[in-house]
Amino acid sequence: xxxxxxxxxxxxxxxxxxxxxxxxxxxxxxxxxxxxxxxxxxxxxxxxxxxxxxxxxxxxxxxxxxxxxxxxxxxxxxxxxxxxxxxxxxxxxxxxxxxxxxxxxxxxxxxxxxxxxxxxxxxxxxxxxxxxxxxxxxxxxxxxxxxxxxxxxxxxxxxxxxxxxxxxxxxxxxxxxxxxxxxxxxxxxxxxxxxxxxxxxxxxxxxxxxxxxxxxxxxxxxxxxxxxxxxxxxxxxxxxxxxxxxxxxxxxxxxxxxxxxxxxxxxxxxxxxxxxxxxxxxxxxxxxxxxxxxxxxxxxxxxxxxxxxxxxxxxxxxxxxxxxxxxxxxxxxxxxxxxxxxxxxxxxxxxxxxxxxxxxxxxxxxxxxxxxxxxxxxxxxxxxxxxxxxxxxxxxxxxxxxxxxxxxxxxxxxxxxxxxxxxxxxxxxxxxxxxxxxxxxxxxxxxxxxxxxxxxxxxxxxxxxxxxxxxx
Length: 472
Ligand SMILES: *Cc1c(COP(=O)(O)O)cnc(C)c1O
Known about the structure:
This protein has 472 residues and is of the alpha/beta class.
């Protein structure tokens, strides 16, 4: 992996390796950031019932809540918006979008949706039944919730290294093939298809190797089961394969991405990630099996099959984004950004998920706040402290997101307590990341003062979005 680090620095040529991140774009339009004081932020956080999702974005200095739909579009994408054909049926923009998705994935059947979770809900409604089990490396929160809503058990079978924040492994997003094999042998009749998340968002944004996807697909095929990729970050995953997998360094990210898709039978994609768009998603499928039922459901809740809940201009922006995201200079800058912040934090003694993933840096809250117990929700507490200290908004990936209040009132807890700082694409510069590092290191020096929280209110599904808290 040492090799990878050096390669990531190089904008062009190899006679000179500047350590500055070369952002491979010029900025044409800027959006001012409103400054806030610590006192103001303390008040705003109380008003938000200690839930960063309830803050107004204009009260946030660096918004690392999500990389979803928050990216900056390129001049080519803005130009494509004007080309948007807003015809209800058969719009030219749909065919451009369909062509871009087919060209990337090789799947002939393309169903647009307004975002990733709509694709999930539609596919799961037509392809699963109550009592089914769907394995993945780690299901993303909306994926898990949509399966559970249909009475399906989402099973997370990431390799053991994927659950150990400090263990370095080039492909910590890999699925544990032994456990998949056992599942198929013991409960195969309950498995309608297998899934795998590229990159593994909830497990630290960690990539999956080409070899692992190939072996997983073969295992599923031997049992007559299709493989569906949750391919939201296909481009970042492809770049990691290029940098880390033996024999892949000479291939383009596009060639690698195409091969990843070729190993599977279909995909669910949120275009708000590697689609470089602010909204959108799609289902793409190799054979006809689920297509008709999915299109019928699409018409019921999303729209006609040639727009699926999107405007023609959105389809245009996604078509361009799917192409731009695979540019190697962009992907180098993208992965280097996370790595750069990660290096600064590690040098300052902050435990993070290692190695850094593609779209985010994940702080290990249990190590950051050793004085807090699981019942204090340490990752949630750390996310609040980051806002108070420096106006940074991150998101908890821990027991608020993945734990549950059972019917008897007891709480279940998640093995990891992480705060994800996810980076909007092409939005922040190296200076912003330097500031973020300063805030986190300053907070570390005063970590003992950070208090835990308790739930004041919670909903049954996706409770982190709406919950209210009080200080412990
Ligand atoms: C964002 C995301 C989704 C859901 O997509 P939305 O567009 O937010 O509905 C599903 N899976 C993964 C891995 C994601 O990152």
